[in-house]
Amino acid sequence: MTPAGADWRALASHVPATVLLSGTTVLWASADLRRLVLADSSSLVGSDVLDLLVERDRRRARSALAEALRRPGERLGPLRVRPLARPRLRVEVVARAQAGDHLVLAAWDVSARVAAERELRHRAAHDVLTGLPNRALLADRWERSRARARTDPGLRTFVLLCDVDGLKEVNDGYGHRAGDALLVQVAHRLAAEVRPGDTVARLGGDEFVVLVDAVPAAHVEDLARRLRRTLLQAQEGVRARLSVGWAADDRTRTTEAVLAEADERMYEDKRAHRGVSDGWP
What we know:
The protein is α+β, with helices and mostly antiparallel strands and 281 residues long. The protein contains ten helices and ten strands.
């Protein structure tokens, strides 16, 4: 069926990717719209336009289309198009009501914008060098852990503060590129030692934090021992190691106070093995 009237033609002249609907049934689709979703006219006309979307976006889109019949210019999106139509395609849509239950939709590909926004959010919450959560994301996850503990008093949260001994010597002797490689190695080692639900974060410099909950204190002590035994190959013939201190979050103190206790224990650990080069415990 060919759409009638001047409004849809005016819209289509400015935004080539357009489609005419009756309810949610496709009556007509422009060539640019067909190219956008990688579909031909025979497969689109007569189909439900919502079938182009991933299932989780369909209810929201259906409600927005119904609202568009009452409010011209309703904007939808970004909406995720099904992978079979086109992988990772995100579209933004403006709907304009026509006679009866007819709607004209104009669609834009906003995949690049959505990906850029996602990358910005990731960078805001993660350390650029190691890819680990940064201080801001650690604070958010710690607060979530505290919120869970308020509904489950038996849940205990522990914080381990880890400091890389030998990083300064590596930076001074081999350059900051070697030091950065050491920090990345630390990130991988820490991530390998914890459970999938635990958080490993980089505070900055040579300091890392491990946040674990729903475990007994004995588990944390064992984890701290394993981390202390970790020998890091910084350069040929040069080894670094981790000093580790931990503290329990009883939720009666600020997170800063809990970190301060872990920091004090970490420096006790550092003093205990200072000057030891091999056979570290």
